[in-house]
Design brief:
The structure holds two protein chains of two kinds. By secondary structure, chain A is an all-alpha fold. Chain A is built from 18 helices and no strands. The relative contact order of chain A is 0.12. The chains are: A mainly alpha, B mainly alpha.
Chain lengths: 450, 50
């Protein structure tokens, strides 16, 4: 049945994509986040939807068939992303020969980067920016809705495991869902139709339940911090406090005893086998980076058994952090920072952190540009939401291997696209002149230059 | 249940693509299902007309 639905959907989606390059781009992004292959079992399963829409988009761009086409401008974000991408290509090429995961992971990462680098050409104007947010919410929110409903119908007993290729275990899923929640808040506030508001509010609650269903301690910590941050930084303090209380109440109502037991174990992390196993993986990643400081061991190097076996014997120089005897089966890096460190070396980690810092700086720039300009307040709310997603990624990612998560790189480029839109909108004077714009004009020059 | 939501997902995705396509061709049209609010459509229209 789902295959028939997908088939019928493709009959409409393909002509739409062929006639409008931006729609093709939206569908490309959706296929990456939603992973339709995971939900199909019949004749529509073998089709590579992502590739189909990517080819259509790239062809339309190359043929100049994109209306309202933007320009790829050199700025902080695009420069850093391009350098990081080039560095990652070199790392993949110079990877250790016994790294069996290298090209599989690189292929997925390269697709994400190409998608991000095309964003300035296609996401132009208010309609497209809003549509892009809706696409992100549809692509990732679906997983939150379905898994959240499963938690509800089982009275909290359903255990959410990994879903897509990127969110492949419960911890990854939890972090991915926390990252999408701020965008759902944005959609709630910036939709006037009750149906759209209801859809966004329900998705927020169900997504919170799906995070609870993962029983991920990191995910819970991440959710708590993000909601707390949201309350502190939101313009609507009372409402955000109400949302936080509601989400907390719903989680407590559905949470099984096993969830409370698991969350209690957060206090004993230093004695926890799972946590100490992660520390060993961090040590192995660090030891690998010391041997390959510039280009690392290649994508997911420590997950190759020969590399793992070699480097668990080289972690003695980190013995000042006490850990039990290491396992003799390879583990994932279990931290975005150590994952990048082991895979792409110290240079790669430096670029990665520069990207992160730049993301926060771009969000700050947008806040400064918009200030009290009511015509662009939506841009400020959206940048706040994206920034909150970055906070979730920094915190939640500290204990999961999500270094190449699409949504992170998409958020970085999306912030830059939003900033360029705001600068252009202010310069074009396309907005209501109800602000003291002229007073802020002088401060635009350094931001544009960056 | 998952199948029903899969159907809704595809429906809303197609609707999104359709709304964007139609919205860019004739920006003054109202959204049929409230994906974009009337006030936002006005702002969007303003962007596009300009």
């Amino acid at each position: 049945m789902r295959d028939l639905v997908m088939f019928a959907g493709m009959l409409v989606m393909l002509p739409l994509a062929l006639t409008n390059g931006f729609v093709a781009y939206l569908f490309w992004g959706w296929t990456a986040l939603f992973s339709p292959l995971y939900y199909l079992y019949g004749f529509m399963q073998p089709i590579r939807y992502n590739l189909v829409f990517a080819i259509i988009t790239i062809l339309l761009v190359m043929l100049g068939r994109i209306k309202q086409r933007g320009q790829f401008t050199q700025n902080r974000t695009s420069t850093l992303l391009v350098i990081f991408f080039i560095h990652s290509i070199l790392c993949a090429l110079l990877s250790r020969a016994d790294n069996v995961w290298n090209w599989d992971i690189f292929e997925n990462f390269a697709k994400s980067m190409v998608f991000c680098l095309m964003m300035p050409l296609l996401v132009t104007g208010r309609l497209r920016i809003h549509a892009f947010v809706v696409m992100l919410a549809l692509g990732l929110g679906f997983h939150g809705i379905v898994e959240g409903l499963k938690v509800v119908v089982t009275g909290g007993a359903h255990r959410v495991t990994g879903l897509t290729t990127m969110m492949s275990d419960n911890n990854h899923f939890a972090v991915g869902m926390v990252m999408v929640m701020p965008l759902l808040f944005y959609l709630y506030f910036h939709s006037e139709k009750k149906l759209a508001k209801l859809a966004a509010a329900s998705t927020i609650l169900l997504t919170a339940l799906s995070i609870m269903g993962t029983q991920s301690r990191g995910g819970f910590l991440c959710l708590s911090i993000v909601l707390g941050w949201y309350v502190l930084t939101s313009r609507r303090k009372f409402f955000s406090l109400f949302v936080m209380t509601l989400v907390g109440g719903v989680i407590l109502y559905f949470a099984p005893d096993s969830w409370f037991d698991r969350m209690d174990s957060i206090q004993n992390a230093d004695e926890n086998t799972s946590f100490l196993g992660r520390v060993i993986a961090w040590k192995v990643s660090t030891a690998l980076a010391f041997d390959y400081p510039i280009f690392g061991g290649g994508f997911h190097a420590i997950q190759s058994i020969s590399i793992w076996m070699e480097y668990i014997n080289k972690i003695d120089f980190l013995s000042f952090i006490s850990t039990p005897a290491p396992e003799y089966s390879p583990r994932a890096a279990h931290s975005i920072y150590f994952e990048i460190l082991g895979d792409l070396g110290f240079l790669g980690l430096g670029l990665f952190i520069a990207l992160l810092v730049n993301g926060f700086n771009t969000a700050r720039d947008i806040r400064q540009l918009v200030a009290s300009n009511t015509g662009l307040i939506w841009a400020r709310d959206l940048s706040d939401g994206l920034r909150l997603g970055l906070v979730a990624y920094c915190i939640g990612g500290a204990a999961v291997s999500l270094g190449y998560f699409e949504l992170f790189y998409v958020s970085l480029m999306f912030l830059e696209v939003l900033k360029q839109f705001v600068i252009k909108a202010i310069h074009d004077e396309a907005l209501p002149k109800n602000t003291e714009l002229s007073l802020r004009r002088p401060s635009l020059a350094p931001l544009e230059a960056s | 249940m998952e199948g029903l939501f899969f159907l809704l997902e595809i429906f809303f995705l197609v609707l999104l693509g359709y709304r964007v396509h139609v919205g860019e061709r004739s920006p003054k049209k109202e959204s049929p299902l409230g994906i974009f609010s009337p006030s936002e459509i006005k702002r969007v229209s303003g962007d596009l007309i300009k």
